[in-house]
Amino acid sequence: LLNDVGSPGRVFRLSSAGLSDKLDQVEILTERKIAWTDTQGLRQVQHSFDDINDVKPEQYLKHYYYPEDK
């Protein structure tokens, strides 16, 4: 997610801390449907296949463009 060609970290020029912050925000916005977990020092993005279909891209765009509406 951070350094591979075409990865979000590389495309948006994020530092490790910046990527972690963005993934923490995604976890909050999706109400943990997409989770950023740490198990024995291994950070992973996890999701439930059932819950992932409930995630609507529009909610992120609205949050980005109209943060006061949330």
UniProtKB/TrEMBL annotation:
* Residues of the DUF4007 domain: 1-65
Q: Which domain of life is it from?
A: Bacteria
Q: What is this protein called?
A: DUF4007 family protein
